[in-house]
């Protein structure tokens, strides 16, 4: 497939990558470790998938605390999120820099967090697609059944959707054989930005196929610093960076270097 404008896909995890903490957990007045532990114990008892069990635990915690847990309240939770420094202006800056190099930047979320929360945030309009866990809702807007769950392995499906141009969830052409030259965005023109162990398969795929994988961390949280360094030492990522997205930040410089590299490739081919 011959594209008139070469594209670069920026794929982001959400929690811990673009903002600190888990706003949904906090809204339930519960500790995140308690939720994960309850989900883990539920998965052991029922031989169920761990993220599905965590979604079940979230519903139970909301019921326990008599908290209204609807599509609308989840969007309201998302609207309260405060992002890391520079995130609100990051997308326009990267889009402008890519455009100046004759490239089109597209942004995607690939997250285990809930889709409705992410859609409620101030930055949701910047994403071409938001791939995240979600519920089926009844007529009152209450979640009644999991519609989709993302975990460390299922996240990779969405990289291939972006790669092949099969962006809709129900587009089964993602399983079709598509030659590399006909794929919408090559992996070598992808950037994956994440913060944790659930991002490893995506990080590894993008890195091994010539893209740019970045592990971000909060410098004030020792555990996150250690995870990022381990990801680098284990060669899962190309580079690690603090969660600072301001102009002239380290991560912005790394991304611009990558954009320049893609630009040089297409200049050479033209």
What does this protein structure show overall?
There is one protein chain. The chain is of the alpha/beta class. The chain has a single domain (7-21, 83-269), classed as HAD superfamily/HAD-like (Rossmann fold), CATH 3.40.50. Helix content is 42%, strand content 17%. Helix 2 crosses helix 3 and helix 5 (87-100) runs parallel beside helix 10 (250-269).
Task: Compose a concise summary of this entry.
The protein has 270 residues and is α/β, with parallel strands linked by helices. Helix content is 42%, strand content 17%. The chain contains 10 helices and 7 strands.
SSE layout and pairings?
Elements: E1 7-12, H1 23-27, H2 32-46, H3 50-64, H4 71-79, H5 87-100, E2 104-114, H6 115-119, E3 129-137, E4 143-148, H7 155-164, E5 190-194, H8 200-208, E6 212-217, H9 222-233, E7 239-242, H10 250-269
Parallel strand pairs: 1-2, 1-5, 2-3, 5-6, 6-7
Antiparallel strand pairs: 3-4
Keywords for this entry:
single chain, 270 residues, alpha/beta, Rossmann fold, 7 strands, 42% helix, 17% strand
Strand neighbour order, sheet with most strands: 4-3-2-1-5-6-7
User: Roughly what fraction of the amino acids lie in strands?
Assistant: 15-25%
Query: Uncertain regions: pLDDT < 50 for 5+ in a row?
Result: none
Order of helices and strands: EHHHHHEHEEHEHEHEH
CATH architecture: 3-Layer(aba) Sandwich
CATH superfamily: HAD superfamily/HAD-like
The global form is: globular
Number of domains: 1
The CATH topology label is: Rossmann fold
- Arithmetic mean of pLDDT: 90
Helix content range of the residues, please?
Answer: 40-55%
**Oligomeric form:** single chain
CATH class wording: Alpha Beta
Round the Cα radius of gyration to an integer and report it: 19 Å
Count of extended strands: 7
Q: Helices and strands: which structural class?
A: alpha/beta
Work out the helix count. 10
Cα separation of the termini: 16 Å
């Amino acid at each position: 497939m011959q594209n008139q404008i070469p594209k670069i896909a920026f794929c982001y995890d959400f929690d811990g990558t673009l903002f600190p903490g888990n706003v949904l957990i906090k809204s339930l007045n519960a500790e995140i470790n308690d939720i994960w532990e309850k989900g883990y114990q539920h998965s052991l008892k029922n031989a169920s998938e761990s993220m599905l069990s965590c979604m079940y635990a979230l519903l139970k915690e909301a019921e326990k605390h008599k908290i209204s847990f609807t599509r609308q309240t989840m969007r309201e939770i998302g609207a309260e999120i405060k992002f890391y420094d520079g995130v609100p202006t990051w997308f326009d800056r990267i889009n402008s820099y890519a455009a100046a190099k004759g490239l089109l930047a597209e942004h995607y979320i690939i997250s285990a967090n809930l889709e409705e929360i992410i859609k409620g945030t101030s930055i949701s309009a910047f994403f071409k697609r938001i791939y995240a866990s979600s519920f089926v809702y009844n007529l009152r807007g209450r979640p009644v059944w999991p519609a989709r769950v993302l975990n460390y392995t299922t996240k990779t499906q969405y990289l291939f959707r972006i790669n092949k141009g099969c962006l809709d969830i129900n587009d089964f052409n993602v399983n079709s054989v598509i030659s590399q030259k006909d794929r919408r965005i090559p992996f070598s023109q992808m950037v994956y930005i994440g913060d944790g162990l659930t991002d490893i398969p995506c990080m590894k795929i993008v890195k091994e196929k010539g893209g740019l994988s970045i592990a971000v961390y909060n410098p004030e949280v020792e555990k996150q610093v250690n995870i990022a360094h381990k990801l680098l030492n284990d060669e899962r990522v190309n580079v690690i960076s603090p969660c600072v997205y301001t102009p002239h930040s380290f991560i912005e410089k790394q991304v611009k270097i990558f954009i320049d590299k893609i630009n040089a490739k297409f200049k050479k081919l033209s």
